[in-house]
# Entry
Amino acid sequence: MPSENDGLRDLHARIGYRMKILVLNAGSSSLKYALYETSPEAAAADSDQLLGEGLIERVTSMSDALKTAFTELAPALGGETVTGVGHRIVHGGTFPGSVIIDAGVEHAIDELSALAPLHNPHNLAAYRAAREHLPNAIHVAVFDTAFHQTLPQHAYAYAMPPEYLAEKKIRRYGFHGISHRSVSLRFAKIKGKRPEDFRLVICHLGNGCSVCAVDGGRSIDTSMGFTPLEGLVMGTRSGDVDASALLHLIVREGEDPAALLHTLNNASGLQAVSGVSNDMRDVLSAADSGNERARLAIDTFCYRAKKFIGAYIAAMNGADALVFTAGIGEHSAPIRAGICEGLDRLGIAVDPALNGAASQEARCIGSSSISVWVIPTEEQLMIARDTLACVHPN
# Structure
């Protein structure tokens, strides 16, 4: 039986292919938005137009935040309507790709909120508010987890009794997939080849951090796991901690599990180790002033990333490039240098002048046997293009 979404798709097809796509990325107290004008032809030619973007902070009502966004975007819309809305959804379980949101998809995202409590509830709040404001638009969920559905079972399964995976879905899902996919596609485009031609280790380093092994355009391993807490040291997240240590704190020390989970997600990482901030810029400044805790936080951060890089080079039996992206990865030359230091025998070395040069462009900063790159992530554009593909699947 045809659905309401099918009718909307037919309507938009009759309107024409050039369309306005709104991208929404909601946080706990923020809303990032962007408006694109695009079409299948524009996407293929890499000529999508960014018409406007913004960030609203200290959000207390997603509905009010969207009203503000629409006011800001009104000149760019020029009286035209938004055809599709792409929503970044952090945890999508085993969804293999982006999908139009219906009642079943909405319920599935809600069920996964327990696994990404810092993200999914706010992603859903933005969707529900946007659905009220734009009832005739097609709303699309673009999942951070989807890119990692190509992980082989030996990479995503924990070494636990099989019923934990089969019945309770305890497994590694991986995150930042939109960013890792964006960077792998951009690298191939720069090289004038296909993503299938390369083995890449991609470091997405921001307030949240992950490393991904991309072999032939497919994610084959990544540092985040069942939730975005696993893996690297992050702004406020601990990354890897022995599960027995956590059980010890709960059983022997009487720690409240909910409070401990909050500590691991919100009061650990750079913030806890440095005692200064979750912002790497502040931590670097403190370390330069002689703060030993800040220096330890930096050393721990770089060491953890270095270990994953080495592991993923081994997993792929080599790599063509190491790529840095996201806030820290794109803008912090000292952290890139710290991570790459001591990896020369693996064929990784950065050129100090190239690494230190200020630039917003994709660029090579080291050309040893494994080249080192900085490539800005284009998550918003990826979400817009996925939304376009769902609106016009043909």
Observations:
- The chain has 17 helices and twelve strands.
